Amino acid sequence: xxxxxxxxxxxxxxxxxxxxxxxxxxxxxxxxxxxxxxxxxxxxxxxxxxxxxxxxxxxxxxxxxxxxxxxxxxxxxxxxxxxxxxxxxxxxxxxxxxxxxxxxxxxxxxxxxxxxxxxxxxxxxxxxxxxxxxxxxxxxxxxxxxxxxxxxxxxxxxxxxxxxxxxxxxxxxxxxxxxxxxxxxxxxxxxxxxxxxxxxxxxxxxxxxxxxxxxxxxxxxxxxxxxxxxxxxxxxxxxxxxxxxxxxxxxxxxxxxxxxxxxxxxxxxxxxxxxxxxxxxxxxxxxxxxxxxxxxxxxxxxxxxxxxxxxxxxxxxxxxxxxxxxxxxxxxxxxxxxxxxxx
Length: 343
Prior knowledge:
- Residues 5-48, 54-213 form the PLL-like beta propeller domain.
- It holds the Pfam family DUF8189.
- InterPro entries: PLL-like_beta-prop.
- It comes from Streptomyces coffeae.
- It is built from no helices and 29 strands.
- β19 (216-219) and β20 form a beta hairpin.
- The chain is 0% helix and 43% strand.
- The relative contact order is 0.14.
- It is globular.
- It has strands spanning 9-11, 15-18, 26-29, 35-40, 45-50, 61-67, 69-76, 82-87, 92-97, 109-113, 120-123, 129-134, 140-144, 157-160, 168-171, 177-183, 187-192, 205-208, 216-219, 225-230, 236-240, 252-255, 263-266, 272-277, 283-287, 300-303, 315-316, 322-327, 335-342.
């Protein structure tokens, strides 16, 4: 497979990591920049695989005592340790934490009892982790680290609104967290911290109508937030942040016909890559025409056969090559990896 628009790279052959997965995969980087990918397996178990230092993959590891529903949300903290936030089958928010750099994990810690959907996590400008989730009241809720040791958390606080999917937070180039979420009536809303590390938030702003998926967020090379979502026409749409990191422009259609939410990531050449599951169930990609450009190439097929779960958020490995994980089709529900390689 030779399709690639990143100079010096091609997309490699598909790698079957097996495993029998039941949700969208969730990758994260170890402190030494090796990729670890978390999945929900059968019987609501949490599993992961870690890439070895030689590029091979270590065996599957199950986290005993953890019971997960939905998609896990791993994040590497400023201290280099990974935390994995997740929703339990009885709708509690829990977290497990690495006990040492590149090491194992603690047992589960309950942070909130009774949440409405899966959590999502992001770092504040000062490195403290902030977690967002829908409440059982349909509002957007949040909590954060309350010390710089990153081990304790505040009580949850409601930000209001009416949210219909897992929120998508990101730290923009201006140092403030932006949260995009799907609201009532197939709408896209954003909110943003009023200042770096602030606990106050701007009013919800309507960014688009006709939204039929959870939004995905990533930064362009200038640190501006780019939001992608599936429109009511089944095409990919984009909403981009202004140069002052304060407002968003009008939605623009990128084309494609998709059956799941798009995901996005910044490649090594400074251009955003947008990944979709198309109507043929294959993985397709479109890339910014040039760094920070508002236009994109047409979608090109990377092949594969995707199952019922979503495509992972892409992640850069230690060589700044993009990795994309997904659930394969068929009864096995194996975890598959597509990645860039050097020519």
